[in-house]
Amino acid sequence: MKLISLNEHLEKTSYPGRGIMIGRSADGKKAVTAYFIMGRSENSRNRVFVEDGEGIRTQAFDPSKMTDPSLIIYAPVRVLKNDTIVTNGDQTDTVYDGFEKGLTFEQSLRSREFEPDAPNYTPRISGVMHVENGEYSYAISILKSANGDPASCSRYTFDYSAPKAGEGRFISTYMGDGSPLPSFEGEPLAITVDGDIDTFTNGIWNSLNADNKVSLFTRFIDIETGLYETRIINKNR
């Protein structure tokens, strides 16, 4: 698969919705992830990311304007020992609880399906990064309706062992704008990973549609030590 620039891809995509990127820094020393949310409605745009322990959660920027918290208030990032879980919904908790019970990433998500937001049936996208004893691997999942049919759920998991330096994968909920919104199709995109955490973070944020972007989370995890750096950008301040 040909490597592409994530920033260029985002600049060309009018509405990717929510997106997860996971990969490895160019120097090979860091496990890298990013998660962003976008919104078209006032309710979706009325959010910020806040730190919550080793992870993050969404919360209303202006609680008086929150009309429906379902599907938009959740913990996108949670950490359990050597695993960092990143998702676009409350399935973060499903994976976390599954890991505590000894289930795999894929097994944990078998109890879930796409979001019940007809007619879009937004896919649930999820990722997990495992960093332990100087070794690093990750996996990405998407749960989506069968071409918009809510009676059928398709589940795909992509597993990446010993990822190459300077490379990553990206998946989003949508392929672009539309009515209904077109779900992501195919294998996660192969992307280049360049620069330090600030260059990486600013590049993604500046590439997202100015009207629709809401919040961005990024993290660089040292593969040898497990120590990490995090950045959060919120449009609402």
How would you summarize what this structure contains?
This protein has 237 residues and is of the alpha+beta class.
Protein model, in words:
- With 237 residues, the protein is of the alpha+beta class.
- It has one domain (6-234): 4-Layer Sandwich (Glutamine Phosphoribosylpyrophosphate, subunit 1, domain 1), CATH 3.60.20.
- 16% of the residues lie in helices and 41% in strands.
- The chain has helices at residues 6-12, 42-45, 91-100, 105-109, 197-207, and strands spanning 19-24, 30-38, 47-52, 55-60, 77-80, 83-87, 124-132, 135-146, 149-161, 167-172, 189-192, 213-222, 228-234.
Strand order of the largest sheet: 11-10-1-2-12-13
**Strand and helix order:** HEEHEEEEHHEEEEEHEE
**Strand-residue proportion:** 35-45%
Give the C-alpha Rg: 16 Å
Just give the CATH class: Alpha Beta
Full CATH superfamily name: Inosine monophosphate cyclohydrolase-like
Topology of this protein?
Layout lengths: L5 H7 L6 E6 L5 E9 L3 H4 L1 E6 L2 E6 L16 E4 L2 E5 L3 H10 L4 H5 L14 E9 L2 E12 L2 E13 L5 E6 L16 E4 L4 H11 L5 E10 L5 E7 L3
